[in-house]
């Protein structure tokens, strides 16, 4: 089992506000990075304000910088050049670990960002996260981060607190968030977990 204590510089790539926290909020609560670069490609001013609040809540104590691009939601493939430029700019910030959407995500915005991340980040490990949704596109992850009960439930609590604009969605509830965490936990012989995909990894012997 690998350990994440050495992650001091973290870069987070999201297509939309709340993507990162839904997918990896438990991991964020379990890490203790010194610096975080938080990148979103879409979002209204109100939604981006929610993302700022979420970053502060999920990453207390970290020095957080933000890079927001006001590209149109659901239309990122039509704005490939701008999306590529945003990811390239993010890659100029040193990182030990990068979180990006899954390469198998059915949502076009997520998938484009997932495809762009490896083209820009050559010196950092990339974890591709999964976002549960109606598309039914969950795959077979190969990396698991176990979560304690307290962390799993704190994640859900903070999602409710930081993203009030999403409360009216019919899928936004405790069961939705905890169900996937419970399933992924069973897959790695824990109660709760978040799961990721790694397509490329470098092992260093020191």
UniProtKB/TrEMBL annotation:
Keyword Signal (UniProt): no
Keywords of the record, alphabetical order, are:
Zinc
BP GO annotations = glycoside metabolic process
At the top level of its lineage, which domain of life is listed? Bacteria
Entry-linked Pfam families: PIG-L
This chain belongs to the protein called: LmbE family N-acetylglucosaminyl deacetylase
Task: List the source organism.
Answer: Longispora fulva
What's the source species' lineage? Answer: Bacteria, Bacillati, Actinomycetota, Actinomycetes, Micromonosporales
């Amino acid at each position: 089992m690998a350990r994440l204590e050495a992650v001091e510089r973290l870069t987070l790539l999201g297509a939309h506000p709340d993507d990162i926290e839904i997918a990896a909020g438990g991991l964020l609560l379990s890490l203790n990075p010194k610096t975080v670069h938080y990148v979103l490609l879409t979002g209204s001013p109100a939604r981006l304000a929610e993302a700022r609040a979420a970053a502060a809540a999920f990453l207390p104590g970290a020095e957080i910088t933000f890079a927001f691009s006001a590209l149109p939601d659901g239309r990122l493939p039509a704005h490939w050049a701008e999306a590529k430029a945003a990811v390239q700019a993010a890659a100029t910030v040193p990182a030990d670990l990068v979180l990006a959407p899954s390469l198998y995500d059915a949502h076009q915005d997520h998938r484009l960002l997932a495809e762009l991340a490896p083209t820009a980040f050559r010196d950092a490990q990339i974890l591709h996260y999964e976002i549960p949704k109606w598309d039914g596109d969950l795959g077979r992850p190969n990396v698991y981060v176990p979560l304690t009960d307290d962390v799993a439930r704190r994640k859900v609590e903070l999602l409710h607190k930081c993203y009030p604009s999403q409360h009216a969605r019919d899928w936004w509830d405790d069961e939705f968030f905890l169900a996937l965490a419970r399933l992924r936990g069973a897959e790695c012989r824990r109660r709760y977990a978040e799961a990721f995909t790694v397509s490329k990894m470098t092992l260093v012997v020191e």
